[in-house]
From TrEMBL:
GO-annotated molecular function: ATP binding
Lineage of the species this protein comes from: Bacteria, Bacillati, Actinomycetota, Actinomycetes, Pseudonocardiales
Keywords: Antibiotic resistance, ATP-binding, Nucleotide-binding, Transport
CDD domains noted in UniProt: ABC_DR_subfamily_A (cd03230)
Domain ABC transporter, first and last residues per copy: 10-243
Keyword Nucleus: no
Name of this chain's protein: ABC transporter ATP-binding protein
A Pfam family per the record: ABC_tran
Native organism: Haloechinothrix salitolerans
Subcellular localization, as worded in the UniProt entry: Cell membrane
Amino acid sequence: MAATSEDTAIDVRDLRMRYGTNEVLSGVTFSARRGEVVVLLGPNGAGKTTTVEILEGFRGRSAGEVSVLGVDPTHGDEAWRARLGVVLQSWRDHGKWRVRELLRHLGAYYAPYSTERTRRPWDVDELVAAVGLSEHADAKIMRLSGGQRRRLDVAIGIVGCPEVLFLDEPTAGFDPHARREFHDLVHRLADEDTTILLTTHDLDEAEKLADRIIVLAGGRIIADGSADELSRRMSTDAEVRWTRDGERFVHATQDATAFVRDLLVRHDSGISDLEVRRASLEETYMKLVQRVESGLGDEEAVRAFLRETANQEVTR
Ligand code: ADP
């Protein structure tokens, strides 16, 4: 395959995966730059976990080219693996270990892979603080709450200071406070040039975290762009709301600016609570996925989507 540039952390071309006769991925193409946060969205069974596991090197593929940090994951060695972070589900078998102790133990495996550019492992106390577990650093793992255990999972995933981090539903089981802290941590990691690929069902989370959102459905990418781009492309109409003489009005229009200008000319002083709103990511996403699930064939759904979206590239 073409040499990947220094700046490309993940490169996937025409990835296909079949389980028996069931084709789960039918030609997926995308790439991610260093420091980019890419969110994979899609309904259950869309192939998100399969895609992530192929990139992690935990699963083979049927066809296509895949490169993570310039290496084909099927041939990734220890040194390559040390540059990746994977957040797995809870470490239940390690219940008797204490938080700090386990992180120090696991971190030691990464020390030989420390480089000038990336020091490994993460300092244990700093790491424990970064995931909000300082108060529990000496607690046994079996004494942690569900949410604390998920924080520990995240700590284990990043103890080696990964250049690429894979997170499969990272905040499932987090309370709002833990979620906010986790989002701050993701931003911090991205600022330090970590590439992050995460799957989530939480559209609000996708909107907050993603530089780019990739929507998978029916085995292919049906949309790829920032949350804002996706909303703009999907919704030709914006919604204008206002209050006049104590009465609330709503109007859908393609040209909100012209409409508002006219409205203010006509009723200048009588208008209050003026709002202009585009479709939320959630509305956009539901619309997209419904198309694919509505009985339209995949091809037809993608074409229908394309008709509505200018400049949208869809990978076949
Ligand atoms: P997602 O993470 O988007 O929910 P998955 O990648 O887990 O989707 O699954 C995609 C499809 O592949 C599903 O239909 C699932 O049943 C199927 N699948 C996943 N793993 C296997 C497997 N090991 N053997 C057969 N089918 C599988």
